[in-house]
Amino acid sequence: MPSSRFPIPQGTLDMLILQILSLEPAHGYGIAQRLEQISKSVVRVNQGSLYPALHRLEQRGLLKADWKQSETGRDAKFYSLTRSGQKQLRSEKDSWVRLTEAVQLIFDEGAAQ
Amino acid sequence: MKRILNWFRLRRLEGDLNRELQYHIDGRVLDLVQSGLPEPEARRLAARELGGVTQVQEEVRDIWLSRWLRDFVYDLRFSARSFFRSPSFTATTVLSLALGIGATTALYSLIDQIVLRTLPVDHPERLVLIDWIGFQYAETFGTSNLMSYPICQDLQQKKDFFEGVLCRAATTISASTGGEPKLTAAELVSGNYFSLLGVRPALGRLLTTDDDQTPGSSPVVVLSYDFWKNQLGGAADIVGRKVLVNQYPMTVVGVAAPAFHGIDVGEVPSLWIPAVMSAQAIPGFTTMLDRRTRWMQIFGRLKQNVSLQQAQTGLQPWFKSMLDEDMRRTNVSRASAEQRRRFLASTLELTPAPQGHSVLRQGLSRPLWVLFVATAVLLALACLNVAGLFLARGSARHREISTRLALGASRGRIGRQLLADSVLLAFAGGLLGVVMAPIAVRALIAFLPHNTAANDLHANVDTHLLVFASLVSLATGFLAGSAPAFQAGRKSLDSSLRERGGTSSGGLLLRRGIVTAQIAFTLILVVAAGLFIRTLSGLLAKGPGFDTSSLISFGIKPALTGYSDDEANQLIRRISEEIRTSSSTRASAIARVQLLLGGAWNNSLTIQDRQRFVTDREVQLNAVTPGFFATLGARIVAGRDFNEHDALNAIAVGQSLPVSQSGRRVVIVNEAFVKRYFGGRNPLGALVAMGSGPGTKPDTEIIGVVENISYRSVREQWEQAYYPIGTEFSGSNFYVRFRGTPESAFRSIRAILRKADPALPITYFRTLDEQIDRSLNTEHMLAALSSSFGTLALLLSLVGLYGVMSFVVTQRTREIGIRLALGATRLSTIRLVVGDALVMIAVGTAIALPCVWALGRLVESQLYGVKPTDPVTILAATFVLCSTALGAALIPARRASAVNPTEALRFE
Lengths: 113, 908
Description:
The structure holds 2 protein chains of 2 kinds. Chain A is of the alpha+beta class.
């Protein structure tokens, strides 16, 4: 595995899952694939932590799950966002933007001196 | 919550997760194979990327249930399995916990019902009892917290403080709904009673203020739901029908809601009558509007935002001015100076009354709390016993635990396992306890006083009780399990693994501590049992001061079936004559007030001896027929008994006719009266008069002195004065000394009464022995329960002591063997073991004695003839405990002395 990929920052996996599911419902493997594609192999997602995260979000009521036929014809568990999941995603995006801006500001300040 | 739900659908969740993960792996393998990897390689890679399927499953399960809960469930399962393997241990512990929890739950049930439960009315927390503290200078009808009806009307105007004020009085009436009249309890209430309490009708309407305007004008009643269902078969057309209340027709206007049983848990009324109908509901009662007649309890509902303190302070100015006004407008002005001072010093007091008013509660809450404390001690003992058993079992499981520790289990984990053990057992015990509790409650209720009024007590297990029992079980489980858990967490691992099998010292110090505490608790309970037994036997030995064998008492109330005074007197005379001449009667007499029922007729007397003075406290009065004392077997110690002349004179005085012959009204007093007011001098010939005002003329001559007999209760000894019965028979109590068996006497008296009037209301009918038992039922309850608690406690702690001593002997077998081999005698080994036990017993006793002293104040008011620190009782209890405990220690000690040195040394 290329060492240039860095591990996903703590606590952001939930947000990424919510973001992916906000586009369309997906099953676990689909989410794993999409994470892989979207992050363009820059971020390394430990697939082992994906399922606990999904179940935790389901337990918190941010996701709901249904068994539906997948593209391969087998039944798969499809996750989708609930209303409170959408709200959660919006607020997490918000705070993420604020955080990165703030970090950027601090970096800029350092560069200016 | 979700997690607990998850527990029940775990199987489905597991299946889903497996399918989900399988789908993931299959998809990944397919992709990898398509990208050119060979399948076995692809499978391995897919699994590795996930970080192991089992790990993922574990992590997800933790999310479902939370780690802690899941482990605890496993622990419980493990515990349950291990308990089924040792049934005798399980049975012993579950049973002792069940006894403790069952007893505590049963008493809590009674306390909850009698003392704690609030009325099923709107906002009971704002109800207050309004009471006159001080001297009311009024005639009293009823039990406690009584005031007059006009004061209630005054208070209803105090709208600044109260949303409303109601008054009520409990009474017994004869009710007839077509068939024979039956005595039943009724409540006389102000018109706003139901609306103020927020009670709704089940049928028709309830009483309103319109029903409570002019005396005698509103012959309406509201029935209780139970009376309507049980006595009238729930007739749908009941509204508008007539009920005869003391033969007076009253119209049923409605039925109250099923849950509402009045405001007294000990006396549930069958019907409610407006207070203005009091003259019809209480024959001979005509003083409803009199300010100097106190007969009702008054309750107010505080306005929102008005505190009890504000209301109480705010009412005082009005109350003081009312006192001043009363002084002028009523006959208070005739009172003595001392009485006027006490009258004017009175205050008005408000107390929270969310539970309503109950005579039963006033009498029982102390004894019930005492018993509750006793059961709590018993439960603590059972806890300690289980803890001791656990420790014993813990040392047997010692190697298992050490091995688990060595394999990497955390100490916390092991401790929790042990806690799971005890919590599981406690809940099993709690369950059994809850099953047993209703039986115990029923037995307890049988101890309580009962009369014509039904009480509202039941033995059902409700949610209240279940919550209580499970809380107690949980606490018990934690208490019993914490000692072994603590022990398991503390031991050093390598030392315990190095110990030889079977000789571990598993928490011996802790077990000794537990047994010591058990002995202390037991001694407390045994002393309590001793005190209550001595109280009861003391009271029984003292007796009422007269011979109760072959004595029957019964009461009749002709007024309740519409007899006029004259008719009633004729009837009573006829019955009295029939009974007197009956072959089974040795002697008979009549008294106006019944003995040993808790009630009395009181008044102050003015005495004209060498000087004139008023008794410093009220004297207990009664009116009796000639021969009353002879019938009871009470001795006349000086002077003479009443004769027929005295009775006739009394009638003459009553009817303002000229008094014939000797021409004096007469009275007989008891020895206590002579002792208090005559200093033991001969009182014959001295004059007295009822009342205390300056206008009272002492004109009644003391003609006799009778020995002290019990009036209100066996406990009490008071100054008494007896008048001859004149015209006022109303409510007569017969005392009949009979020949032969009680059954035949009952039969012949019943026949006489039925012949006189089949519908005559009989208020009670029992032997005096039974009457004494009934008047002592609280003492019976305390003695019976405390002695069974004491016995149980003794049993539990003996088992505990025996267990520890056996353990010690087994453990020291080698040492004892060596001692014996080196020449110690058998006796000295016995002394060795017994000495060990003696230390525990001595320390336990030393701990218990100060506790006995401290707890003494709690029981002091329940005792008679003994002090809570009575040395004889304490010594006897200590002796019983020590001797039985030594007996329990001797068995293992004898086993120790029988050790064979060679075998002991070989034993490994």
